[in-house]
Design a protein that fits this description.
By secondary structure, the chain is an alpha+beta fold. Helix content is 55%, strand content 11%. It contains 42 helices and 17 strands. The strands form 4 sheets. It has a 5-stranded mixed sheet, covered by helices on one side. The protein has a 4-stranded mixed sheet with strand order 3-2-1-4. Strand 15 and strand 16 form a beta hairpin. The chain is globular, with a radius of gyration of 33 Å. This is Bifunctional uridylyltransferase/uridylyl-removing enzyme.
Amino acid sequence: MTPEELKVDQLVDPKSLLNELNKLVEKYDGDGSSFKLRSEVLTKLKSTHKEARKEIEKLLMDDGQGRRCSERLSCVQDMIIQVIYDFAVTHVYPVENPTKSERISVIAVGGYGRGTLAPHSDVDLLFLWPYKQTPWGDQVVEFILYMLWDMGLKVGHSTRNLDETIKQCREDMTVRTAILEARYVWGDLELFQELTKRFDKEIVSGSGPEFIAAKLAERDDRHERHGASRYLVEPNVKEGKGGMRDLNTLFWIAKYFYRVPNGLGLVEKGVFSRRVLNRFRKSQDFLWAVRCHLHFLTNRPEERLSFDVQREIADRLGYMDHPGMRAVERFMKHYFLVAKDVGDLTRIFAAALEEQHVKSAPSISRFLGSFVPGSKHKRRSIKGTRDFLVENGRIVAAKEDIFEKDPVNLIRVFYLIDKTNLDMHPELLKLVRRSRRLINADFRKNEQANRLFLKILTSRSDPETVLRAMNESSILGQFLPEFRKVVAMMQFNMYHHYTVDEHLIRSIGVLSEIERGMGGDSHPLATDLIKSVHSRKVLYVAMLLHDVAKGRPEDHSIAGAKIARKICPRLGLSPAETDTVAWLIEQHLEMSTVAQSRDLSDPKTIKDFCRKVQSLERLQLLLILTVADIRAVGPNVFNGWKGQLLRTLYYESETILSGGHGRMSQQQRVDFAKQELAEKLEGWSDEELDNYLNRHYPAYWLRVDLKSKINHANLIRMTDAEEEHLATAVKPHAFEGVTEITVLAPDHPRLLSTIAQACFAAGANIVDAHIDTTKDGLALDTIYISRELPEDDDEYRRGERICCLIKEALRGTAPVPEVKGLAKKPNARSKAFSLQTTVLVSNSWSENYTVLEVTGLDRPGLLSDLTTEISALNLNIASAHVGTFGEKAVDVFYVTDLTGQKVHNVGRQESIRDRLKNAFDGKKPQKAPMSSRRRPQKLTGK
């Protein structure tokens, strides 16, 4: 585009700017080498560039055209470089009679070569010589670079002659890609034209398959580094799957293989239709708008669309709140739909390339699909259908009208994918997408279509892959309109790692893995129970629909149950099965909530839970669904700790629901846990084992995982031989991003508060905690703090320093350091969220204790503040449950007054609510009186 079309001629006029610089030269009597002159020239260039960028940002805010913004920035950069070059060769290093070797061509390469530039992107330049570098050329290049650097620009540059450039292109695919996008900026035009001519003849000609293979391998590697899913809730706009680099890869391959300068050339070659090209341009424009806003907003080359910027970018792009969906969630849904379009464009492009060139260049095909290099297009039939065939390892349509004649084929084709374990040919995928309008209200009632879909959903092979293919082709949302509403829907929180539709499909994959016995070590009970489930389809249907009502004003569990009652009969489920599916969806969060935030040793907790579950079959189904749901939230969200809590809740409930005849009584499970530990402890005498196995209460044996039990046993054994029962242990967990600190100490009322204060004073944020007491008066505290240092050795030393502070505080040899400003600010990601603090005071959740549930935005020092305030309120903590779900903290305390009674006084309950809310919000808590006495504390984690 011309500067006039881009509106940049009003921002920077090279002739006018150069005239101003010429006047500065006159001011210094034509001395182009004057330091003061250079300083004034630099100041003028800086101000011009800064004002132009400000105006370009305003234009972006006005017209919202991202691609146009990048072109304006590129055009302004061109003009600045042109002025600097002309000034250098005219006034600083003039040559009256230049030789043939004293020529320079200034060439834009990389993204800048495409004529686009993000606000903080590198300016990639190639300074090209005809033969060898001359002193004059060296001086001019140095002047240009220093001017650009002093302007604050990041410049990637290389200086080569023609022969060197061609040689580098031949040896290095990165250089070859950069030169592919080379664009003349200024200087010697003839030199640039000679480069492009030689590049086409000596490099590009005949090397298409090699280039395509390299670019696609590079793409796969990039996806692996930045996240294999395009539905990660904090995507990388540039490098992530479905981002700008994927579009760039298409452009590179197209330009290299078809030798076309732009998208219109691809239409002329028959690669894209105009409609598809428009999708390409719309996707590109949107991604450029997001990227430019991201750079302008953060004032740096930020490419990750993190939580702390998503809300403001949504506002910049003009998104508004709708009932059930915030503006930021609507923006992110648009983003993920665009990422999905980018995936579609990739498949369409691959199909066209394969169709047109596989015969002449069969080696291309193995990078685009599952073709066998050099094989002929042999077709074979598929048993049970005449409408589909297999060609070169992929399913193809027998005729173009197969969907018009029998729309059920739109579901059948995915059933065949599952049955044959073959991929769909991209041309068939295009036909499927074009035909999806055939799925209407009447189609959705078709018994055969519903029967086939249920077979896909409950497949014993790999239902996740097939359902994802259905979703990518938009068939799943067309067949289940309720599912379509959550496609690409993001939940604006730090707990969920994927969009809602991706989470649902992943949860089906996890459920299938559990059924096939994969990963049983992390959830052995679910793996065992699923073998005896009477109705698999109930479980799979509930799993697919459990979050399908997200984004509605009504609670998604209740609304989801209503949706299930409409869909299940259509899928062929009986009334009883429909009721079970609806109940599972309505209660799908219940087991997780109770296990992670209630005292499982309290009989009323178990009784209330059983009152909701009502039957052993429902308990089994709910346990399996809960495990799969948590595991599908994101990597490592499900852990051994949560698994142990769920198993404990299951076994306690099973005993009641089976009339006291559960598969294992509590005592049997305790005995089993003891025996399991005894077999793992090496070098212990029989007497030592007997004594140790009797030191813990039953709750410890039921709640703690085996690995932790072994570590605890060795730690206690070591301190038994010492005079002081005080020891600590540190273990960094790199993948989880936390560091585990274990503290063994004599139990006393303020133990938890002291440890929490010491961690806070050391700058450690507690995200999880677990404390048990032994029968002989020891407390075993396991605290998880946020990791700060990348290397395990460094983080271990940090943990040791925190342990020293804890020991000094517990011994009383040194007071806990005061922390100025009670509450540290949340980190940048947490700042993006706003959660109202709520405090519930309930006497109905436990028969013996008042339960305090405090919920709000997590922050460093929170547990320290809450436990200190509870001490100041003269409350005894019987047990506590610390939970962190992304940015949300849910802390539950089981308390009594100093006489061991519940808190019944309404006025005191109100005071507790107010003071805990103030403590949660970071207002200074009261110090506990020295006379306060509390019962020993037992703290369980999430």
